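User: Predict the structure for this protein chain, please.
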Amino acid sequence: MIREAQVVETKVRNGRYLCRACNGKLVYEKTREMKEFLDKAPNASEALAIDGPSGGLPLPTSELVGEEAIRNEIWACLMQDEVSKIGVWGMGGVGKTTIMKHIHNDLLKKQRFERVIWITVSKEFNVMKVQDNIASALESKEYLDKEEDKLRRAAILSEILKNAGKHVLILDDMWDKVSLEEVGILKPSGGNGCKLVLTTCSEHVCKYMGCKVIKVKPLSEEEALILFLNKVGPNIVQSPTIMPTLKIVVRECAGLPLTIVVVAGTMKGEYNPRIWKNALKDLKERIGKVEGVEAEVIERLKFSFDHLKDEKVKDCFLYYALYPEDFEILKVELIDCWIDEIFIGDMDTRQEMEDKGLTILKMLEDNCLLENSTTEFGSVFLKMHDAVRDMALSITRMNPRYIVQAGLQLEELPEKEQWSSEIEKVSIMCNSISEISIDVLPTKCQLLTTLLLQNNPIKNISISFSQTCFVLVFSICPLRRSRVYQIPSLN
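Assistant: Here is the predicted structure, written as structure tokens:
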């Protein structure tokens, strides 16, 4: 019955809104069947064999090149009782998350730990969100749902983790030090057999948290070249006129797997040596204009964005930056948004527009600007790497058409000074804004077409914009699904 229910869930998740509505009867029938079954066997649970704790599901990963030594070092620490907390640090794009995803999957196969818990933390640390994510991973979120006090939530979560047995908790992408007690994370020790692993760009965070510090270094020139050649394609490798320039391009990627993959994706299919020389010149000029490691990484990634030949494709890419960090969205839903935004037009049928959207998605994926993630039920979600999103946000900050303040725990709208007559797209989704007032929102934004508000506890909207067209996106569920409404004018 559970398998049948999962099939129904997949149908609903993959369908369009109309299809979801049509599937409502199917969902109702399946729910009714399950309820009848349980009603007929009220004491059945006493005779059922309950499975032990589940380790979790494997995470989608990309290939590792030249990271075996670091991977083995982290693994050895996890197998030692003496080491309870491990801090994996290195610059953005160096491959920390990819390494840990492989280790996560290896831990599931090893079955030494009863649970392997993966939590993505991100820049804007939110205690309650992290608590919810850990509880959800342990299938115990209902114990926190009705509790709002952070201290009590921490106590409840601590008990949940105690009952989870020996586990490894991986906190990916930590930007600042946190108090484990404040969150309710069980202090790992040799006594309880639990481990904590965090990935971060800061060595200071590792040391403050009392971790065994492991640094992930950039790839060597040889390793970087192997990865680049794997991604750029065999035909280019066979061109003796391109190889000398290609090797210098690889060197300019500074051994960072992310930039190597993105630049290789951009140059894939280019067989003209002059284009390669121009690309090398462009890369060198970009890196020479900025100071600081992070700025250099962003400029290398901008190289790929600027080489997208179609302005509409660039608009589609920047649209994804409106969503918060680590946000995942179904392919079909993202294409629907692009169509509603009129990024995809001048076609006779909806099917042609959707086909064009898939073509654009493939182009962005081939350039490694978007990543694929498949759920256990086969649904394909899209995600943007943190460093790629930082690059996209750096572009929107220089563009007066955008205001992007998603997932920043804001309690009010951005200040009036940030709104201009050129603003077209505003994203303040996933914040703590409860009211949108006419006094805060200026009336001069005549070009505003997109206002993303979902996942805010909004209780009151008071807007009086005349002769303005909006696309308001409100969430119809707390996580991913959203619905688009076209409103000709709001008075």
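Confidence is low (pLDDT under 50) at residues 42-54, 465-491.
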